[in-house]
Each structure stands twice: as C-alpha cells, then as structure tokens.
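Work Package 3 (structural annotation) set out to generate three-dimensional models for the target panel prioritized at the project kickoff. During this period the team completed the workflow that converts sequence records into discrete structure tokens, so that structures can be stored uniformly alongside our sequence database. As a representative example, we reproduce one entry of 180 residues exactly as it appears in the project archive.
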Amino acid sequence: MLLAMLSLMGSGHFHGDRTSRMNTLSESDIGILRLLQENAREKLETIAFETGLSVATVQRRIKYLKSKGIIERDTALVAPESVGYAMTFLIMVEMERERLDQLDAFRRKTKAEPQVQQCYYITGEADFALIALARNMADFEELTHRLFFDDTNVKRFRTSVVMNRTKTGMTVPLGNSETN
C-alpha cells in the first residue's frame, strides 16, 4: 500500500526561523499545504480550485514553499508489512558520553541505517529515541549489534515492541482550526 505523503517535519534540529515563517504564510499557502499533506500528488488544477487561486499561482507558491524548506520533500509511505517488515520497535538509547563528535557519529550511523525510520535527540533519562523496523527478532538482533553493541559509546538501550500501530504519520497541524 502506497500513500502519498508530504513531509513538513524538521530534520531533527530546532529551526526557529521556520517557526517565524508560519506567521508569514498566507491563508492560500496554508490551504495548499493542507491539500498536499493529504495527497502530495494532488493535481495543480484541484489545488487551484480548492484554494481559489490560478494554476500558475499554485505552481509558484509550491515552488516558493519548497525553496524555503517549508515543504521538505514528497515521499511515498510504504506499509512495512507489505515488504516484509513485520515488527516495529521503540528504542531508548543512553550514551556513555555526550561529546558533540560522538553524538554526531551516532546520528550519522542512524541516518545511514535503513531500518531506522526516525531518530530523535531527546532530554530525560535517554539521549536518543529511535523507531526502527525488523523482519523478525533475529533481524532485530542483528540491528542491535550494528547500532549498539559495536558502539563503545552506547551505555545501554531499552526496547519496546510495538503491538499495534494506532496512528502513524508526519502531518503537521496548520492553523488554529486543525486538530490532528
């Protein structure tokens, strides 16, 4: 199952300038973003009709939103089970040391690992929270060796197995009237 998705989320770092940009977005821009988050492959004509803009204006606004990093990318969402990834894991990782070079090395490793869907640098007891996929427990064990056991800076990690994906998505609430 493929679902079109538009990622508006940040890349893992705080972007104050993006927050201030939300204040400068027009109602038309917000309308375009809402439609694209629902279906990133929506026809320009449909977006134009729904927002009351011309097709040329919609095309210009989308180009602008992409150039400013407000729209980061267009992506297809693939159902993990349909391609053999039957298991999802939430993993809390505690590092031995929090030196910048070591944190960056761990970030690079998780970015390069295809089975890691998301990685967050967080506050609290753990330093990182990961969402990862595996075909089965043996596959997950191999992943833990690549990411954790082979890394001398990983102090410990705790794993929870996802029993049911109740809600997944990357949509961003736009405006006061939207409750996601």
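Strands lie at 2-7, 73-78, 87-95, 116-121, 128-134, 154-161.
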